[in-house]
Design a protein that fits this description.
The N and C termini lie far apart (54 Å). α4 packs across α5 and α4 (119-129) runs parallel beside α6 (165-177). The chain has a 6-stranded mixed sheet, with helices on both faces. Strands 2-1-4-5 form a 4-stranded antiparallel sheet. It contains 11 helices and 10 strands. The chain folds into 2 domains: 3-101 and 182-278, Rossmann fold, CATH 3.40.50; 110-180, no CATH class. 38% of the residues lie in helices and 26% in strands. By secondary structure, the protein is of the alpha/beta class.
């Protein structure tokens, strides 16, 4: 067993992750190939039962790292340890049992949810795929999860487009919880919502984390949300982790110039108050 996995309190640890993509440019004949290095020797640890926020501007490599940890993509090099198992190079059939323990909540629930399935069917789908429970038990789980995320079970026969944006994200969270995972990867889960719904979804996620002992990897670009929601923060730039600290340490004593630039770009308390007034929140 790798010594890194012995670290107490760590659910996921990535070591030396590299990931390259090839972009082909030009006409069909004589195309040029450009190698884009999305991940460059990334090391990261996600504490069990805590929230690690992954921040950085667009193109920094955040989503690529999240997709590798979610086992959607394989890194070119490096290790991903989940509990005491290196999962980076497992075969597809070996990954299937792990899928239930690692779930993903996407940025846009409208495109992530099947518009032809009812809310109940959407939540039950992971249970069907993993052959979990019988028909009536699956329905019971779906209705319970709807209530837990703040959706009335009476709306179980509605389709995604019949819900508001905030409600659709709640539905996506309920589906992610269906298999009782250990890790939720949240990819900009509130960026498409207004401030009021952002606050409500973040509070829901905090409550669920406490009640279910969940671990979160939260991909985010708004430092305002990171300051409220994260336990630890990793800052990415050009495929590398340039700084990783506790929330208090990063906001109090940022070490890297890029981190300081991100903090300097945070909206002021006054501008946030004006936004909340305009949206009728205060």
């Amino acid at each position: 067993m790798n010594e890194a996995t012995q670290t107490a309190g760590v659910l996921v640890r990535a070591q030396g992750l590299d990931k390259n993509y090839v972009q082909r440019r030009g006409r069909p004949f004589g195309r040029a190939e450009l190698i884009v290095r999305a991940l460059d020797g990334v090391n990261i640890a996600i504490p069990r039962g805590k929230t690690l926020a992954l921040v950085g501007e667009s193109g920094a490599g955040k989503s690529t790292l999240a997709r590798c940890i979610a086992l959607f993509e394989k890194p070119d090099r490096g290790e991903i340890w989940f509990d005491d198992q290196n999962v980076a190079n497992l075969r597809r059939e070996e990954l299937f049992p792990l899928r239930r323990r690692i779930q993903f909540v996407f940025q846009d629930p409208t495109s992530a949810l099947n518009p032809r399935m009812t809310a109940e069917e959407i939540i039950m789908e992971p249970l069907l795929i993993h052959r979990e429970g019988a028909g009536e038990r699956r329905r019971e789980i779906a209705l319970q999860l709807m209530e837990q995320v703040g959706l009335p079970s009476a709306s179980s026969e509605k389709y995604p487009l019949e819900f508001s944006g905030g409600q659709r994200q709640r539905l996506a969270i309920a589906r992610a919880l269906a298999l009782n995972p250990s890790l939720l990867i949240l990819d900009e889960p509130v960026s498409n919502l207004d401030v009021r719904n952002q606050d409500r979804i973040l509070q829901l996620l905090a409550d669920l984390q406490h009640s279910r002992s969940l671990t979160y990897l939260h991909v985010c670009h708004e430092m305002r949300l990171v300051e409220r929601f994260a336990d630890e923060v990793a800052v990415m730039r050009d495929g590398k982790i340039v700084e990783c600290q506790s929330r208090a340490g990063l906001f109090g004593w940022p070490k890297h110039p890029y981190t300081r630039a991100l903090l300097d770009a945070m909206p002021s308390v006054e501008s946030i108050f004006k936004t909340r007034v305009a949206e009728g929140i205060v």
